[in-house]
Amino acid sequence: MARxxxxxxxxxxxxxxxxxVIRAAYxxxxxxxxxxxxxxxxxxxxIIQIINSAYEVxxxxxxxxxxxxxxxxxxxHGKDAAGWTASNFSDVRSSGKTNGKPHSHGHxxxxxxxxxxxxxxxxxxxxLDHFSxxxxxxx
Length: 139
Prior knowledge:
The chain is mainly alpha-helical. The chain has helices at residues 7-11, 19-33, 42-59, 61-77, 87-95, 107-138, and strands spanning 97-98, 101-102. The chain has a two-stranded antiparallel sheet. Strand 1 (97-98) and strand 2 (101-102) form a beta hairpin. Helix 2 runs antiparallel to helix 3 (42-59) and helix 3 crosses helix 4 (61-77). The N and C termini lie far apart (41 Å).
């Protein structure tokens, strides 16, 4: 099953992050991608809009709880953000064919690369969380 992308991912914080860490992550990312620091960059504008939206939800306790409930409901039903379930793909996997063509056996290496990338991303998020806490203590 594909992992859903949440506001926590957008701010690069853990789901159990305290408000101080969320605020520090927001400040760090908004300074990095602020349109004044990236003049003429449509990518920076898009990213800052995503960051602002994520912070708006995660900084409000009621909206954050609604978001957490949505995450739990989505994970419980085994759906990703697009509404697909793992069972939608089980027939394709079990038949060994996709659209009448033989199934490619390169999927294992792709899965392994994706797994390594996910582990590295989780380590990076953990390091950012620790760094944010360090900055908060340092004042």
